[in-house]
Structure formats: C-alpha cells, structure tokens
Amino acid sequence: xxxxxxxxxxxxxxxxxxxxxxxxxVEKALNRVRNPFQxxxxxxxxxxxxxxxxxxxxxxxxxxQHLKMRIEYVGKPFPDALIRVKEGNKWxxxxxxxxxxxxxxxxxxxxxxMKRGKECDMIICWKDDWKQKPRTxxxxxxxxx
Length: 145
Prior knowledge:
This protein is an alpha/beta fold and about 140 residues long. About 30% of the residues lie in helices and about 25% in strands.
C-alpha cells in the first residue's frame, strides 16, 4: 500500500472518505492478511476472524439463519443467550454461552454456575480447544465451518 494512503488511513477518524482506487489498494492489502476469511473481506460486514467473544456473537448472528437457529435473547448474565434451534419441524429454546474459545467456558467459571443450578445447553464459539468439556454441553464452533 502506498505510504500516502497508509498515512491517510492511520488518521484518527471515525469516517474516512476513500476514492475507488484507494479502496482497491486497501482491499488488496486486507486480502494478504492470513485469516480464515481470506478473500472474503466483506462477508456480511465481517472483515476477519473473531478475536473477541463479542465478535463471535456477531458472526453467529450473521450465520444463524443458515444453521437453522435464531437468537431469541442476548444479555450479560450467564448464560449469554437463548437460542431457538430447529429440531425436526419445531423450534426449541436452548440456553447458550458464547465464547471465543470453548475452553473459556471453564476459565470464566461457568462450570460452577451450572453446579449452582444455572442451565446451559450449548457453547457457541469460534475455536474448539477444550479437550475435557462435559458431554452434556452441545458445541457449535465455526472456525472450520
């Protein structure tokens, strides 16, 4: 990317006006970045693989219709969301916890929440790295989808 364009982008602005040829240079630079969405720099508004739990939530929202799932509720307390899942011909509500990595479920103390009687049916995450997850939890991960 030309230094003049790089300098223009580094300015602390919320909205930046680029000419078409400038955008093509930015797009070319983005496509050189290694990530699972390489070449998909505008996948329904998502530019790269998630790096935070909130980005995993956004990605799930974008993919949910294709997965025969719907978001019923998202909030702060455990579990993060109620998800409607199509099972056969009917929709069932499931409690879900969003995580960037499946192992974060344990790191964040959610196994203790479940021992105290709080329900959680599934972990929705970007990366499955938790080898010893409870069999009672359904896992939906999207890194390789």
